[in-house]
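Troubleshooting: if your tokenizer reports a length mismatch, compare your output against this known-good record of 136 residues.
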Amino acid sequence: MLDLDSCCRLISDQNHDPLLTKIAVSDEAGYCGAGKEEQAKILQWVLYSYKMTNRAQSYAEEINGYLSTRTFMAGSTLSVADIAVASAVHTFLSSLHITPETQWELSHLVRWFNLVQSTKLWNLSHIEFFRRPSYL
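Known-good structure output:
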């Protein structure tokens, strides 16, 4: 298993996203995980995000299911894993003709993506989703 330094080096070596590299290398706010188990999960999702490039559509339902019982990809706070996976699905979501039905089908992915894109770390364009009426 890789330690935190190796994980951050791998991210900076493999990733072409300067934001993700900066977060991984500096890790000012613990975005690379608190313990070894969380760091391993983060590394797993970062590597998975590389695999998703240009094929995020085929992974959207899987990620949606995974997020049905979670707020973040790994651990209980935002991490490099969330930024990496959100970046990987960004192009797919931005090209998708989002209808209320589509948003319902991918509701966990949409909820999580909205959370990630609302953070100060997000540097890609924002995607607008349908809002639920306040009377519901």
